Amino acid sequence: MSKKCIFCQIVKGETKAWKIYEDDLCVAFLDVFPVTEGHVIIATREHVEDVFSLKEEKTYMHLMKVARKVALAMKQHLGAEFVNIMTASGVIKHAFIHVVPRYDYDLMEAVPDMENKRAVDEDTMADLAKKLKLSGTKGGKKVAESRSERPTG
Ligand SMILES: [Zn+2]
After folding, report:
1. 94 alpha carbon – ligand 1 mean position (Å)
2. What is the DSSP string of the chain?
3. pLDDT at position 63, please?
4. Domain at 6-135: CATH architecture
5. What pTM did the predictor assign?
6. Which of the residues 54, 101, 127, 152 could staple to 80 if both were Cys, CB 3.0 to 4.6 A apart?
């Protein structure tokens, strides 16, 4: 675990985030600088440099399973026409995947422009988080049943 790792801080609840899902292995939350509205990050609880460094394959498989749930929610609740699921190596050295809802199918590139990130206002983030909220199980208990309006720790 790294003290300066922002994703570890979010996973542990030390930094607020617009969480939409969590369970024993991962936490999903809205990217604060989304490439499209509703862009979600799914980060593992385990701190390793990237998804390919995860100790167990099942953790990697689990991320993909959660990504599918998130993608289906994006299609159903945000009207996404397609969803990109990808890994990217960037400044944050932590195992995570991007789930990016895509709109306006005719106008889109196959892969979103990851350099074109911009902050979205709080009300929009609250609305997106509410629409995407999924329930998971953590330590045998159901979490995220209530739809929070503000970032939670
Ligand atoms: Zn980390």
Report:
1. 5
2. --TT-HHHHHHTTSS-B-EEEE-SSEEEEE-SS-SSTT-EEEEESS--SSGGG-S-HHHHHHHHHHHHHHHHHIIIII--SEEEEE----S--S-EEEEEEE--GGG--SS--TT------HHHHHHHHHHH---EEETTEEE--S--SS-B-
3. 97
4. 2-Layer Sandwich (3.30)
5. 0.89
6. 101
